[in-house]
Design a protein that fits this description.
Mean pLDDT: 96
Largest sheet: 6 strands, mixed
Low-confidence stretches: 1-6
CATH architecture of the largest domain: Alpha-Beta Complex
Helix content: 25-40%
Radius of gyration: 24 Å
Structural class: alpha+beta
CATH topology of the largest domain: Creatine Amidinohydrolase
Strand order of the largest sheet: 6-5-4-1-7-8
Distance between the termini: 27 Å
CATH superfamily of the largest domain: Creatinase/methionine aminopeptidase superfamily
């Protein structure tokens, strides 16, 4: 896969998204979407640029200093794209720009202008309009610019909301892109499993992942990789990744790549020396069994909260059977005693963002049931701190999470990451 060209979603799909979006706008309104700003890392150096997710979803354009504007009248809607100008001197330092002429050829919008024309055009676009849509997370300087020309605007609405709702259901092209991300992530996890016995530090494992991601065409990791050995796994968002690997420990690896702006999100927990201890095996099998049972429940119409409730019940029952919790499962659940060992949710939406900002509830506050085309993670876990004297000694210092990426289909589900090893017999060598 090395050197492979990125799979690209066609302009027609972006055009279709823009059409759906504009249908959601009120008449006599303007909607404006800004690209992400470049961010300073230190002094005069910057972080690698990453486009705003909603802007990318609506355009597929990855340059900064870019704006997408929709002007909706009583009978028709027009779309305008503003792009940064071509400048040979600047391109010498910072790379090529698409420019207005090429943008006109690439994007199916009504007109393309230079970014420097935004203020003057906004004044015209907003004249006589009553509603302005923009992302409410927009930085103050841009909000100030908008409101300078929005004197007659009666209503301000969050442009991000309808886009985030659209992002709930993935197209075939989006699903194909996520699958491509998972192919690379699978390769990285499997290489890490093979090499772990020869490595000495968590960061060496992290380096293996990042190398495989980039070598195989992924632009980056989808989030900061977690490589948590031993008791470090009991810190849910552990990203130091600098501890020495020890014998007979488990290593929780939560790592996935981003491919063409779409995420993968996979967690596997592996033995440092290729063999589980008896206690590790007991806890691991419990988490794995729960994960399989929850995944099997997925189909359209199911509520995520019911998956959460069932996962908590199954994990609590297992913790009682292993002697980690004592008492009636029903009473323990009522007291939330199990949350000490399983404090997080069963999963989340995934797509352009690893935690997609799509809604979990509708406008009336009712939970949105699973629907065909949704992609979510399923990730039960058990975390027992080394200093937890209430737990049997053999289980202390063990943290386990197993996470897969699931597509809801018309009748049930498809585990998009099922080929990434997770059975005990597959992880022992």
């Amino acid at each position: 896969m090395a050197g492979k060209e990125l799979q690209m979603i066609e302009e027609q799909e972006y055009k279709k998204r823009r059409k759906v979006f504009t249908k959601k706008l009120q008449e006599n309104s303007v909607a404006i979407l800004f690209s992400a700003e470049a961010k300073t890392r230190s002094n005069d150096t910057e972080y690698p640029y990453r486009q705003n997710s909603n802007f990318y979803y609506m355009s597929g354009f990855t340059e900064d200093k870019t704006v997408l504007v929709f002007v909706k009248g009583a009978k028709k809607t027009k779309s305008y794209l503003f792009v940064y100008k071509k400048d040979k001197t600047e391109e010498l330092w910072n790379g090529k720009r698409l420019g207005v002429l090429q943008a006109k050829k690439r994007f199916d919008v009504d007109a393309v202008f230079e970014y420097s024309e935004l203020a003057s055009k906004l004044k015209i676009f907003l004249e006589g309009k009553h509603t302005l849509y923009y992302d409410f997370k927009l930085d103050y300087s841009k909000v100030k610019l908008l409101k300078r020309y929005a004197k007659n605007i009666d209503t301000f609405k969050n442009a991000a909301k309808p886009i985030q709702k659209m992002r709930l259901i993935k197209s075939q092209a989006e699903i194909a892109t996520i699958k491509e991300a998972l192919k690379i992530t699978k390769k990285a996890h499997h290489i890490a499993m093979k090499k772990v016995k020869k490595l000495h530090y968590e960061y060496e494992l992290q380096a293996e992942f990042e190398y495989i991601f980039r070598k195989n065409g992924a632009q980056s990791d989808a989030y900061s990789s977690i490589v948590a050995s031993g008791n470090n796994a009991n810190t849910l968002h552990y990203i130091n990744n600098n501890a020495k690997l020890q014998k007979n420990e488990l290593i929780l690896i939560d790592a996935g790549c981003e491919y063409n702006y779409y995420a993968s999100d996979i967690t596997r927990t592996i033995p440092s020396q290729g063999v589980f201890t008896k206690a590790q095996k007991e806890l691991y099998q419990l988490v794995l069994d729960v994960q399989k049972e929850i995944i099997a429940l997925i189909k359209p119409g199911v509520m995520r909260t019911n998956l959460q409730k069932k996962a908590e019940e199954l994990l609590c029952r297992g913790l009682v059977q292993l002697g980690i919790l004592e008492g009636s499962v029903k009473k323990l659940l009522k007291k939330n005693a199990h949350k000490k060992y399983y404090p997080h949710g069963i999963g989340h939406w995934m797509g352009i963002d690893v935690h997609d900002e799509s809604p979990y509830k509708d406008k009336k506050g009712k939970e949105i049931p699973l629907q065909a085309g949704m992609v979510l993670t399923i990730e039960p876990g058990i975390y027992i701190d080394k200093d937890d004297r209430n737990a049997p000694k053999r289980y202390r210092g063990i943290g386990i999470r197993i996470e897969d990426d699931i597509l809801v289909t018309k009748k049930a589900y498809k585990n998009l990451s099922k080929k990434i090893k997770k059975e005990i017999k597959e992880l022992e060598f």
